[in-house]
Amino acid sequence: MDATPLDASNVRRAFRLIVKGAGLDPSEWSPRELRHSFVSLLSDNGIPIDEISRLVGHSSTAVTELIYRKQIRPVLQGGAVVMNRIFSHDPER
Length: 93
What we know:
By secondary structure, the protein is an all-alpha fold.
């Protein structure tokens, strides 16, 4: 079987060249790391989970939440903070 441009080894090789060309250490980065960083940056900057899910090509937000639960924690915690404020007994809320 002939290797295609999207063969896993070809993708990894091309990715390492791009990372090296960007001045980064290819041993510290993988396509998976880059994808997780992408999700983290979006989440940290308030992008809703449904938009993140669409951008990474998942069929539902449940898939995104399962795979990236550590990266999307700030979004989930943000919701908890709002709920605490809504249901707070503090008259100054």
